[in-house]
Design brief:
The chain has 269 residues and is of the alpha+beta class. The protein is 40% helix and 19% strand. The strands form three sheets. It has a five-stranded antiparallel β-sheet with strand order 2-1-9-8-7, with helices on both faces. A two-stranded antiparallel ribbon has the order 3-6. A hairpin with a 2-residue loop joins strand 7 and strand 8.
């Protein structure tokens, strides 16, 4: 018998929280699906959806450009780690935010979209367990302040930072996949994600996976959709806490994919 998601999390030495559902069905698999968890870079998914909705409503021009200066580049992937200033369009900022988890691109997009508008989107979709304290730069500032003061990091505490639940995130994914307009744009950006070491690693190559990771010290997440050749699609949200604080833990990354696959296998059986 294949291991359950709970057994997979235990073997990796982490606490895991998971919700998986087949799109168009009420069937689901749950492991602490209503437990508050740290959102981390998964916040970029509702950000991108609100951006796409504002473009569709004519409120934003996707070709408008933003300029990433030294003050905006706080380190990380994409333009966040560039040595020099760069400009790109809003739609490319969305692509960078989802494909390579570019924090600077997400910050600049939040500036145009508005944090309050993303919060309003969450309320409209009924994601009552999801809260956003601000853009990635705002979370980073809490980390810097807490480290300077020698106190526990608020960024690792779901009650004090941007947070959600696995169930809320599969509800968000279902809304995106049901939307032929703005949702389709977000699906394309998520499908372009370059990180294949978590959800995607758990599924065979014939299964298409579109996702978004989130990472903090001791926290590793991914939400996404796995679409099988028979057309069945499954929304999966996996959040883990524990393990070494080093960002490189391929065993935990793989556990995320294996737990997601185990949950989907249960639904398919």
């Amino acid at each position: 018998m294949s291991p359950s998601p709970e057994e997979i999390f235990a073997a990796a030495g982490v606490r895991g929280f998971l919700h998986a559902r087949r799109l168009g069905s009420e069937a689901s698999v749950e492991v602490g699906a209503d437990t508050p968890v740290v959102l981390a870079s998964v916040v970029k998914v509702p950000l991108a959806l609100e951006f796409a909705r504002q473009v569709a409503a004519g409120l934003l021009d996707p070709a408008d450009r933003v300029h990433a200066t030294a003050a905006d580049r706080l380190g990380g992937t994409g333009s966040a780690g560039f040595a020099d200033d760069v400009s790109y369009s809003l739609r490319d900022a969305a692509l960078l935010a989802l494909s390579v988890s570019d924090n600077t691109a997400a910050d600049l997009l939040f500036d145009r979209v508005g944090v309050e508008n993303v919060r309003s989107l969450l309320a409209e979709l009924g994601l009552s367990r999801t809260s956003i304290i601000g853009a990635p730069r705002d979370v980073l500032r809490t980390i810097m302040a807490d480290k300077a003061a020698g106190r526990p990091l608020r960024a690792l505490d779901p009650s004090r930072t941007s947070s959600t639940t696995p169930r809320d995130m599969t509800r968000l994914l279902a809304a995106i996949w049901a939307d032929p307009g703005p949702g389709a744009r977000v699906r394309g950006w998520m499908a372009a994600q370059v990180s294949w070491h978590r959800l995607t690693a758990g599924f065979p190559p014939e299964v298409a996976v579109a996702g978004k990771t989130g990472t903090m010290p001791g926290i590793r997440n991914e939400i996404g959709i796995a679409t099988y050749p028979d057309g069945a699609a499954y929304a999966v949200a996996v959040f883990t806490v524990g393990g070494a604080e080093t960002l490189r833990r391929p065993d935990i990354d793989r556990a995320i994919g294996d737990a997601a696959r185990a949950a989907v296998d249960q639904l398919r059986s």
